[in-house]
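Q: Joint fold for the lines below.
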Amino acid sequence: MQEEAKELTVSRLGSVEELEQLRDDLIAADDPDAPMIIVCHGTGCRASNSSGVAEAFKAALKEAGEDIKVMPGIKTTGCHGMCSRGPLVLIKPQNISYEQVKPEDAEEIIEKTIKAGEVVERLLYAHPQTGEKLVKNEDIPFYAGQHRIVMNNIGKIDPTDIRDALKVGSYAGAARALLQMTPDEVVEEIKASGLRGRGGAGFPTGFKWSLAAKHKGGDKYVLCNCDEGDPGAFMDGAVMEGDPHAVVEGMIIGGYAIGATEGYAYVRTEYPLAIKHLGIALEEARAYGLLGENILGSGFSFDIQINRGAGAFVCGEETALMRSVEGKVGEPTPRPPYPSDKGLFGKPSVLNNVETWANVSRILKNGFEWFTAVGTEKSPGTKVFALVGKVNNVGLVEVPMGTSLREIVMGVGGGVPGSDHFKAVQTGGPSGGCISWDKADTPVDFDSLTAMGSMMGSGGMIVMDDRDCMVDVAKFFLGFLEEESCGKCFPCRLGVPRLREMLKRFSRGEGTVEDIDELYSMAEAIKDGSLCALGGTAPNSVLSTLRYFRDEYEAHIVEHRCPAGVCKDLITYRIDPEACTGCRACARACPQDAISGEKKEPHVIDESLCIRCGMCMESCKFGAVQVF
Amino acid sequence: MLNLTIDGKKVEAEPGWTLLDTARQNGIEIPTLCYHEAVEPFGACRLCVVEVKIGAGSRLMASCVYPAEEGLEVQTKSERVMNVRRWILEMLLSECPASAEVRELAAEYGVTSTRFEVKNPEQECILCGLCVRACAQVVGAKAISTVGRGAGKQIGAPYLVPGEDCIACGSCVTVCPTGAMRERFYKVRGVPPVVMARSSK
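A: Joint structure:
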């Protein structure tokens, strides 16, 4: 596996002409119809041993030897997207898509597909509703329904080889900016594109750049926020792992636009693969002269340093991130002064999210009109979502802004297992909110989601069904924020644990309806008073679930009932004597020995011993265990 | 001089003043707990928030750090502001029940009891950070810091190990708005060696 930077015997590219010549040469030497076995090496597939699969292919190809007319190459790439079905393998040039491939399957694939041109049916994706086996990615709604501009290269290129990135057009945008445009023109291009920050707040990127650019002379900085802390979000990780040059190129453009010669990429330590791949990308870019002194003969010098996070969600907040880079404790500092005036080391700085930087490189390459042609008027472009939860196609998706929740979940997502609708979709991570099924046709863009009481956030999208309790969901997010609060400001440090305490009481069936009214007032105080958006958005999970699921809260408080069957203090597990066959699977699974009965006779759960873990329900093949 | 309006009253500010400076210079009261003239403002307690008109709407900003600007319209006692102050004070009553200063300030805002559970009835430290800032910015010893994150935060020597950096000047005790720093002194400084020698006999 070629993971380390290759021995690059290259000379620095001294001009755009040299860059384009190299690109042309690389493309000319490439045969797009050459057989290739592409094995996804995104983090998800790696966890399912995709590297074992790649090794198995190598070994099997060696074995096959002269039997194969044209020996396929093996390429390892970043995340293909359908993360729950990994390891994913793509066979070129036919574009046959295999899922859940094991190392033992390599031989069969080589025999059947590579040698005989046949498809291995059992490894194909099956449509969740029709059961039809689909051969090519283009046929699978998960892929067909996406519009990939940020992730367009991921899954096609080896992220540890800059030559792959050059073949697909990387650094063309930077070359155009540096050699054909003035810094102000670059700022105008980004403004005209209408690009809004993809980190969550949706602040107009071009406007932010202009605020830093207006300071003439002196040190300035650009930063990349790859701290990605929302539970369930892995979009930025996939981009940094799968196409790091997209971000490097974007930062070169941003540095040029505002007058910064130094960039900092802040990557969370929990993303070792992203750190590794970004590190390789930086070394390769320097070797080619795409980073460093006098890039492509433009006179503009720029380089990037990697800073690692240290396990604090709050360091995803821009001022806390900058303090962390400065070597200080990662706590937010008041704004004003805004970072565009006094940011990193007290100098004008621009911080943008990974996905934003990737969009920047595409916009400069293709022009702002290309970008505004997709999406909505106020939210042009696309958004990458981590689609997870009760959805058939769990993974990373990129869709135009304005696509409805229904299209994303039921179309691209392949629907909700066992149901024709979802109960709620949670967006925006701990700062966001839940949107109910009756709002399924809500177009997903910055302003629509905010109007619904949620927010776009960084791209986490959690699909929920009737077995998800909205009180429990709010309690979970508050628990996360309580742990992650930096503790500096009083409303957050004191308020979030108390809000969480209220939710804990509700989930135990305690509290009164009057408590809910008080909760609104306290929530306003925390929102208004907090120093940063962690505290400022902490009440959102409660407020949005109250807005759409108030009856569920009242069921807990007034009726002492959890309709979803989740809150442990309010549920009972019971065995239906009509359905129970006495197989004893549940009794064996029960960690408390709470289930008793004669073999082949209906069994009974002793409620006084039951800890409501749900193992009995999971182990029962007859649906005899029910939760009330 | 900058001209702005606070609570409907036209006031003047020197360039470089914050809204808190401006208010206090003009006899307008704004409560604070984490502010002290000797150190840089921190913006942590949020009691000093004021409602500032921004565009079509308004936002609550900490007046101790927000710079006075020409034409600003500021409310120091709006409903949103009072709501923030009352809730912070009520939460502080449950968090630091032993502090008389907190009780007094809360009473000024009509908050005399708390619905929240009291976990530590002897707690006086409100985590305003004044001690840390005095030690770092005025004395330069940097002997103490906030340790830990979030609800588990506390004031102490780095890694909670008594160290040599403290010069026992007492500045931290002086700036502490409650009695809390007095109790922390030995934690930060360590028990004096004389006492240790005696107890080893």
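Q: Anything notable?
A: DSSP finds seven helices and seven strands in chain B. The interface with chain A takes residues 42-47, 49, 60, 62, 65-67, 80, 83-84, 86-88, 91-92, 95, 115-117, 126-127, 129, 145-146, 148-153 of chain B (CB under 8 Å).
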